[in-house]
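Job type: complex structure
Entries:
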Amino acid sequence: MDITSAQYTESEGINSGIKLVSNGKTYYVPLDENNSHYQAIQEWVAEGNTIQEAD
Amino acid sequence: MALTLHGTVSDNTVALDRKTATPLIINGDMSISQRGTSTSGITNGNYRTLDRFYTNNGNIGSVTNSQSTDVPTGQGFATSFKIAVDTSDTPTGTEWMQCQYRTEAQDLKPLKFNTSSAEGFTISFWVKSAKTGTYTLAILNDNASRSISQTYTINSANTWEKKVLSFAGDTAGAIPNDTSIGLILYWVLASGGDRTSGTFQTSWDTYVTADFISSSQVNLADSTSNDWYITGVQLEVGTFDANSIPPFQFEDRATSLNRCNRYFYKSVSNAPYSVLANGFESSSTTFLGRMDFPTEMRALPTMSSGGSFQVIDGSSRSVSAVAFDGNSRSFNGARVDVTITGGTTGKGAMLRASNDTDAYLEADAEL
C-alpha cells in the first residue's frame, strides 16, 4: 500500500496503535504482527521511513 | 433418486465429491462487495470492490475493478469480477499485474502438505477476456516460500470459458495451522521480464522469482480495449478434470457475507440517522462507544470511518473527529473515540449518521 504518513497513537501513556494515512484515507492500525497493515508499515520502515511519535 | 458420483472409483473405495464441508474459496461467485461495486484509477495493490479478491496492477498503467453482472450463461452466477484497462502500458522488470486470492493457512489442513499423504488439488473458474492467449495461474505457499505454476489459454475473445487446473500436492513445504496466509493464488494478467526469464516452474519447488510466470504470458495492459472477468472460483481437494470437477458450491448470501466478515466488516448507515455505536460521554468533548463485529475476525483489525456523524444524548452533539483506540480492540469489537462539543460527563449516548446514508465504520483483518 502507498503510505503517506504513520504516527503512533497513545493510550494510558503507552503506544497503543498507529494512525496511518494512505491514499487520502486515515486508518487506525493495531500493534499486531498478524495485521496486514501493520506488516505493510514494518516494510515501509525497513525501507528507511519513520513512524512519528505520538502527540 | 439418481445418485451421481464425481471423482474416482477404485477397489472398494468411492471418492465422493468433496473433502471439505464448505467451499475453501470464500465469495467465489463474486456476490459480496462490501467496499463498493467499482473503483477506477487503480495503480497499486489492495482489496477493492469484491471481498477476498486482491488486485495489484503494479504501476502498469491503471485499471478499474468492478463487480459486473456479465456472467456465463446458465451456470447460476449473477456477478463476476471485472478488471478493465484504463491506461495501457508495457510492463518491465519486476512490474506485474495480477488478481490474487489469499487463503488462510489453517483452512488448508485437508491438503496435508509436508507429509507423504499430501493431497493434490484443483482450481476451477470461469474466465472471459478481450485478450486471447496464454495466461499464468501461479501458486505460492507463502510460509514455506515454495511455488508451482501452470498456464491456461483464453481461446476466444469476449467468450466465457471454464478452466480446470489440477496441481500436485507438496510433500515438502508445510502450511502452518494458524491465521497467516496459506496458499496465494495469482491470476497473472501481465508481467515484466524479471518473473518470466527463468525456467517456468510447473512442479513444487523453492520459489524463484524468474521461474514464477510463463514467458508466453500475455500483456492484458497493452490496450484500453482489454478487460478480464472471473467468477465461479473453486478450490477442490483432489485431482479433477473438466468432466469430474464437482459443481460450484453456492452459499446463501448470509453465509457468504459472514465468512467474508472474518476478514472485512463494513457497518454502513443505510438510513440517514442510523445508529452505528452505543456508549457514553466521558467528558464534554469525548464520546466513547462500542462497535461489535458480527463474527470473530482473523486478527486485530485496522479501523477506519467515513461520512458525516453526530452523537445523540437527548440532544444532537456535533462530531469533529472519529478515531479508534488501539488498546481497546479485540477480535469481536472495537472502541470508537469521538470528538464532540457540548457533551455531559457520564451521560449515555449513541453515535449515529448525520443525514448520511453512506456513513460507515469498518474493520479490516484481511490477509
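Summary: DSSP finds one helix and three strands in chain A. The CA atoms of residues 30 and 39 of chain A lie 10 Å apart.
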